[in-house]
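Hi F.,

I've been meaning to write this up properly since the lab meeting, where we talked about keeping a consistent format for the predictions we share between groups. The idea is simple: the sequence comes first, exactly as it goes in, then the structure tokens exactly as they come out, then a line or two of notes. No screenshots and no reformatting. I'm using this chain as the first example so we have something concrete to point to.
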Amino acid sequence: MATKPSKNLETFDNPNPERDYEIHIESDEFTCLCPVTGQPDFATIRVAYVPDQRCVELKSFKLYLWSYRDQGAFHEAVVNQILDDLVAALSPRQMSIEGEFKVRGGIETSVIARYPDDIEDEGCCGHDH
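Output, unedited:
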């Protein structure tokens, strides 16, 4: 059976919940549709988080990202939705999501959303992206 896109984010127990450490995930194969034109938008999605009790399982995250391929979404909305879904699944100590969307019509867009909202501007976990 072929692997199919899914909104189901699977998690596993953090092997070191007593320690603050960072997990960085990057995918340069993200695609969604422009809700105005229906044309595909391509992006690199970067996740940085400090886990608490749970970590995201990477294959499920890949299938989750695939689930946006046929979905119309503004860049700002999709980045915030990814953050909301990961925070709901993981309850991390900190998290940031960056969507770096490829140039279309001479404009490149980068959207960064953070949890909690009061994380400093240098990004999640004190590192520039």
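Notes:
The helical segments are 58-66, 75-90.
The chain has one domain: 21-117.

If this format works for you, I'll send the rest the same way.

G.
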